[in-house]
Amino acid sequence: MTTKQIVIIAYAAYLVLLSLITFIAYGVDKKKAKSGKWRTKEKTLLLLSFLGGAFGGYPAMLIFRHKTKGEHWYFTAVNWFGLAVHITLMILLIFVFKF
Questions:
Q1: How many whole angstroms separate alpha carbon 82 and alpha carbon 19?
Q2: Most exposed among 11, 58, 69, 70, judged by the fewest C-beta atoms under 10 Å?
Q3: What is the value of pTM for the model shown?
Q4: What is the pLDDT of residues 16-62, one digit of tens each?
């Protein structure tokens, strides 16, 4: 296996793991919101999405109907931006970077 293949697999595994963590974080926060308990900070959810968890964060927003109202527009923006960044990085790793 080449170094490039190892990097691509490691990056993909990172995205899958962080997306799963982010999905769970959104779900737990929604459950806590319904029961009036202590909540996850918004910046924590946003950071998880931006750092690679948007593949789990955006579907979680839709499935749990969490942070989807107009006053939370920035959650949709950060998730879409995170998706764009990490899809671009994966494309660069696969087709452009040579190592």
A1: 11
A2: 70
A3: 0.92
A4: 999 999 999 999 999 999 999 999 999 999 999 999 999 999 999 99
Q: What is the dihedral of CA 42, 73, 68, 16, to 10 degrees?
A: -60
The dihedral over CA atoms of 58, 86, 82, 54, expressed in degrees to the nearest 10, equals 20
- Rg (the chain; Cα; Å): 15
Domain that holds residue 26: 3-96
**CA distances for 91 relative to 26, 28, 39, 84, 95, angstroms:** 27, 32, 36, 11, 6
Tokens (6 digits) for 73: 């527009």
